Amino acid sequence: MTDQEIKEEFLTSLTIDQSLISPLYLSILDEAIETIVKGNTKINGKTPSTQEERIYCIGLHFTTAQKVLNETMQAVKEQSLNLPVTLTYRGQTYQY
């Protein structure tokens, strides 16, 4: 499957309005899909081949990325005085 086919497959499996997904999460989704397509993500020693396996691997990727993002944002919040935070991820800038 192509990147776009996997992305459409994943997004259509969600039960929320896709317009509510933040641009940062879409970037993380693109990264997760990229790792699947390039063969860097394995489940039981092989590249995910079913929708269930791809969704599971994307979920694991999100869990890891979210944990790193939350820890980073928490550390920044502890150091700042309620100032906006700008994050650059995969060449795109996000402000919080």
In short:
The protein is mainly alpha-helical.
Key terms for this structure?
single chain; 96 residues; mainly alpha; two-stranded antiparallel sheet; 2 strands; 57% helix; 8% strand; elongated
List the helices and strands and how they pair.
Blueprint: H1 3-13, H2 23-37, H3 51-79, E1 86-89, E2 92-95
Antiparallel strand pairs: 1-2
Helix pairs in contact: 2-3
Q: Can you tell me about this structure?
A:
By secondary structure, the protein is mostly helical. The protein has helices spanning 3-13, 23-37, 51-79; strands at 86-89, 92-95. A hairpin with a 2-residue loop joins strand 1 (86-89) and strand 2 (92-95). The longest helix is centred in the C-terminal third of the chain and has 29 residues, at 51-79. The termini are far apart.
Number of strands: 2
- Using only CA atoms, what is the Rg? 15 Å
Structural class: mainly alpha
Give the proportion of residues in helices.
Answer: 55-70%
Query: Quaternary state, please?
Result: single chain
**Count of DSSP-assigned helices:** 3
Low-confidence stretches: none
For the biggest β-sheet, the strand order reads 1-2
> What is the helix/strand order?
HHHEE
Distance between the termini: 34 Å
Tell me the fraction of residues in β-strands, as a range: 5-15%
Shape: elongated
Describe the biggest sheet? 2 strands, antiparallel
In round numbers, the mean pLDDT is 88
